[in-house]
Write a structure and sequence with these properties.
Strand content of chain A: 15-25%
CATH topology of the largest domain in chain A: Phosphoribosyl-aminoimidazole Synthetase, Chain A, domain 2
Number of helices of chain A: 8
CATH superfamily of the largest domain in chain A: PurM-like C-terminal domain
Pfam families (chains A, B): AIRS, AIRS_C
Protein name (chains A, B): Hydrogenase expression/formation protein HypE
Family (chains A, B): Belongs to the HypE family.
Number of domains of chain A: 2
Structural class of chain A: alpha+beta
Strand order of the largest sheet of chain A: 9-11-8-12-10-13-14
Order of helices and strands of chain A: HEEEEHEHEEEHHEHEHEHEEE
Largest sheet of chain A: 7 strands, mixed
Oligomer: homodimer
Number of strands of chain A: 14
Largest interface: A-B, 88 and 87 residues
Chain lengths: 337, 337
């Protein structure tokens, strides 16, 4: 199997070509003692404690972009969802749907990137599956990942736990991933560099959990962005969320592209940022914990939860107005993750 | 949302339309107390014992076929992979990739079928994800499922555990699923009825485990069929496997279609059959256990493991010859599951 070859229908048939693909490509980059069992299912040692389980399919277009690719994104996205429940992510499964004709070199680049991302996040890929569909029946490749983590005893985080008086923080600039994908796809000739923020948030989350006994909610604002994630929290918790627009960190390049194209960075996807809702008295402790982590250097306190206008989210604008932030409606950017 | 509508890119954007799809369609058919958490990840209670974890993506074409559809198949396929390690399947996650324009009525039919299949198998869908890609970027819908089960203490089943002297059994007729998909796709005007064998094997497996302390290996011969699965077992266990061709149960309609089209039923996919390898002295006990289950009525003893020709599989033909059964090579039927 050479990098110059292409994926054939054979590679998904479960016979010799499938076995070669597993042995020569997947096992090489993702292999570990659990994946190597080669049985219908992997056997994992007993896990003490409650489990957090999440699944995501990734269909991002293009599959390679500044700051990452569909492989690293598929690891980060699911690791982050598991970590947002306070769990330590331990295991991933991965399912590939490949389009006939995909260059094997592209697949290998994606799988190698998954392997690096998994090692960086400290998770093992324990089971996988590959299907191949004909030309024109999928677009290059889609990846599903499912993650399993263990939640420390006594820890309860969730989108329904915010209370009036809680502080709302974000771990850094918003909209970087969304703007990067859009710029890659449209071939915008940006003079300033911009890259996806795709990154594993489990270490940042663990630092917050250790520093803040009053932590209520962690959430990574992916599809739908900050505004949609906060709407979900406001609705599930029965609080109103008031933001200070000037406090929300936005990279100037992202702000410029958004202005140019009429996009709102508060609705754009992020893949390496988290929203942290914490008891008001612990806002500074949360901020300090995030800023001590390389992925939280630009963390900011952006608002508060209150008892008024339960279920709604709004921001106080820099010119003294108030803007209601509803859930995302419509599709600003398809295939963003 | 009415059944006459179609899937739009909006439905995958993570905003209002996504939330409606979750609330009005997925939650209605798949809902339970764990799926209803609506957080980034589901939280499961502590599970005592080792876990079996498996993932599969389903791309079957057509999505509706006699005996099932892509939804029931996605539940059965993963439940069965988990059960083949001796585990009790408990939880599933599901990830959908939908093509823009898919009729919502078709999606609902598939999701309702998943719900019925999950209830029948006794598993809960605990997490889900939906992405939508543009027209022509996928073919109708693809489904990934990942399953989690718990393995009873002390039970060790696996493809590397077969030993010389062991008996080889199958739970019923082979090739039904493969021939059904082919006939559906090609519009063969079959006069005799034939249907996919898609079914959950966890109850059948549990019966075998209870009846046979000398159980070595369970395996469901899906893609690549009986011959490929036995080759994997022979290679991993270091045994030779000798079959009696006349003992292998094949439905006459399947045999007829295979003869007509030059296909070999031993290489066709099954979705409701298992291979059982058991200590030779317990072959009759295994056969009785299978035949007492509706899914194992046509179970048969089809061969033995030996120490000769380790890693190879062959059958003694009814005319006194010997046929080597290698792994599947090439792709007889793309998108079979």
């Amino acid at each position: 199997m050479s990098r110059g070859e292409h994926i054939l229908l054979d590679h998904g048939a479960g016979g010799k070509a499938s076995a070669e693909l597993v042995a020569e490509l997947f096992a090489r980059h993702l292999g570990n003692e659990l994946l190597g069992q080669m049985d219908d299912a992997a056997v994992l040692p007993p896990l003490g404690g409650r489990l957090a389980v999440s699944t995501d399919s990734f269909v991002v277009d293009p599959i390679f972009f500044p700051g990452g690719d569909i492989g690293s994104l598929a690891v980060h996205g699911t690791v982050n969802d598991v970590a947002m429940r306070g769990a330590t992510p331990l295991y991933l499964t991965t399912g590939f749907v490949l389009e006939e004709g995909l260059p094997i070199g592209d697949l290998e680049r994606v799988v190698a990137s998954m392997g690096r991302a998994a090692r960086q996040a400290g998770v093992k890929v324990v089971a996988g599956d590959t299907k191949v569909v004909g030309r024109g029946q999928a677009d290059k490749l889609f990846i599903n990942t499912t993650g399993i983590g263990v939640i420390p005893d006594g820890l309860e985080l969730g989108a329904a736990r915010a209370r009036p008086g809680d502080a709302v923080l974000v771990s850094g600039t918003l909209g970087d991933h969304g703007v990067t994908i859009l710029a890659s796809r449209e071939g915008l000739g940006l003079t300033a560099p911009i890259a996806s923020d795709s990154a594993p948030l489990n270490h940042l989350a663990a630092g917050l959990i250790a520093a803040c006994p009053g932590l209520r909610t962690l959430r990574d604002p992916t599809r739908g962005g900050l505004a949609t994630a906060l709407n979900e929290i406001a609705a599930l918790s029965g609080v109103g969320i008031e933001l200070e627009e000037a406090a929300i960190p936005i990279d100037p390049v992202v702000a410029g592209v958004c202005e140019l194209l009429g996009l709102d960075p508060l609705y754009l996807a992020n893949e390496g940022k988290l929203i942290c809702i914490v008891e008001g008295s612990q806002a500074e402790a949360a901020l300090a914990a995030m800023r001590s982590d390389p992925l939280g250097r630009r963390a900011a306190l952006i608002g508060r939860c209150g008892g008024q206008r339960a279920g709604r989210v709004w921001s106080n604008t820099s010119v003294g107005g108030r803007r209601v932030l509803d859930m995302l409606s419509g599709e600003p950017l398809p295939r963003i993750c």
